Amino acid sequence: MDDGKPVWAPHPTDGFQLGVMVDIGADTLTIEPLSHRGKTFLAPISQVFPAEDDVNKHVEDNCSLMYLNEATLLNNIRVRYSKDLIYTFVANILIAVNPYYDIPKLYALEAIKSYRGRSLGTLPPHVYAIADKAYRDMKVLQMSQSIIVSGESGAGKTENTKFVLRYLTTSYGTGQDIDERIVEANPLLEAFGNAKTVRNNNSSRFGKFVEIHFSQKNEVVGGFVSHYLLEKSRICMQSKDERNYHIFYRLCAGVSEDLRSVLHLSSPDSFRHTKAGSLKDPLLDDLGDFKRMCGAMKKIGLDDTEKLNLFRVVAGVLHLGNIDFEETGSTSGGCVLTNQSNQTLQHCAELLGLDQEDLRVSLTTRVMLTTAGGAKGTVIKVPLKVEQANNARDALAKAVYSRLFDHVVTRVNQCFPFTASSNFIGVLDIAGFEYFEHNSFEQFCINYCNEKLQQFFNERILKEEQELYQKEGLGVNEVHYVDNQDCIDLIEAKLLGILDILDEENRLPQPSDQHFAEAIHSKHKDHFRLTVPRKSKLAIHRNIRDDEGFIVRHFAGAVCYETTQFVEKNNDALHMSLESLVCESKDKFVRNLFENNFSSKDSKQKAGKLSFISVGNKFKVEHAQ
Ligand SMILES: Nc1ncnc2c1ncn2[C@@H]1O[C@H](COP(=O)(O)OP(=O)(O)OP(=O)(O)O)[C@@H](O)[C@H]1O
């Protein structure tokens, strides 16, 4: 940094501000801001960066900046953003900033045509340029390619994923129905898997990997969507100003009068699962969205029966939420349905094809098989307390809805089948690193996933590139980065990893969130990546007890997780009586949703008290794939 030349120095709200150095100390620099001449402040040397000669000039690729540092990089993106240039390259990585409005012609057909076959860097940065590079690489290398879209909630991941799909199907499709279907499948997936959150009115609450498959002639032949970790807690509980999945509100707003009476529907504020969240948002148009969703269903080939099946189950889940329990007052300590719930029980049973009385019994008791000396023993019916019955009801709602979501994805995949595929281009759209005031199991899983992605990035971009530079004898300064393997081990190591400790807790006769938190701390006392909430920099977390939470130092920052409900959220199992009830539904559609669920291994597991299917480990296996 030269004397008198502008530098970027820290600014409390803007990140960085321009200034000039007026004095140099041992560890600090005295800076005079250009906007407040005559006033100086001290800044740590490590946080002051040289600025470009002309800070209003911008470049299409950050690599072309004279000085590449955090401040110049941010400034370049800011200057571009102010001119509606939302995309910027960093070599073959694309940075996108959400404009929150439709920039005219940015995604028009002419733009699609112009990027076709053009090398990266010959045209302005665009998501189409990345899509085309993936296509050309696939063609030349004869290898499938993947595009990873990452960023925080509301950053624009899903929109950009859709632009990639549209680009590929428009440019390299055969102009047939299948191209349209791949694009039209999104509104249906979003109806069941997206919700309004405080950050995003259309937030995807599941991760997805969309594959566009190509023939030997490199033409689009079909698609396939895999989904990960639908946020199930939302089905029964929403945070302030957030909503349940779109479909619930759309159904209430849009169904015909006839269907409304068949499904016994009324307004969302009469259902527990929908009334708690934010009901009115001027930016949401449930009726219009219902019509658009029905249009999309038609385009991808769903007939009226299939549509009704979906709606019936959604309505069944809504009614299920309205079932309430009260104590019996008898010595057995169990509970019964409240009088007002009897009608709801009837609606719910009817819509899900269940026997009303069986449903009543299954919600209020739990069947257990005793095993004596290894032999199958007697069936015992254990009455449930009100809280346990509430949990059973919610577990059933979550199980039915998430099975329905699996079905929607499977059904969507049937819309663009392919018999032979040579290669595919995959687009991974998953939630980015999340850090809220209150963080739970969902954030833990999402951040674990991002930790794995970061490792992939470290390996693929930083390590391999630097090895290549060395091999080619280029005198490029080594870039140091923090290896996050220790953090990944902390989460996924066998036996000692947080996920395994949690599974162990779930298998205990009386699992508890407190015991789980204590076990983590006692097994990782001096782990660099793990600490107790008391040591948080934020006052709000310092009130959390050691047995109520833990802090993980992730690559992107420390996150304090509150362990309440970790044990419950990690268990995907329904208790045995509920499981068999839905598996034997009179409604073929509902029965099929739960098909393959009653394998002999599962039944054996459920015969004892240790009914448990781990959500965390399922997620771990998905990552490994
Ligand atoms: N390129 C864009 N042009 C115009 N609007 C955009 C663009 N990208 C995003 N948006 C707007 O921002 C909203 C949020 O974007 P999007 O749903 O893609 O975010 P996300 O990163 O997928 O969020 P989440 O992780 O919550 O699903 C969109 O509904 C859209 O209104």
TrEMBL record:
Alphabetized Gene3D superfamilies for the sequence: 1.20.58.530, Kinesin motor domain, Myosin S1 fragment, N-terminal, Myosin VI head, motor domain, U50 subdomain
UniProt-annotated binding residues for ATP: G151, E152, S153, G154, A155, G156, K157, T158
Record-annotated Myosin motor domain positions: 57-625
Keywords: Actin-binding, ATP-binding, Calmodulin-binding, Cytoplasm, Motor protein, Myosin, Nucleotide-binding, Phosphoprotein
Matching CDD domains: MYSc_Myo6 (cd01382)
Family classification: Belongs to the TRAFAC class myosin-kinesin ATPase superfamily. Myosin family.
Name of this chain's protein: Myosin motor domain-containing protein
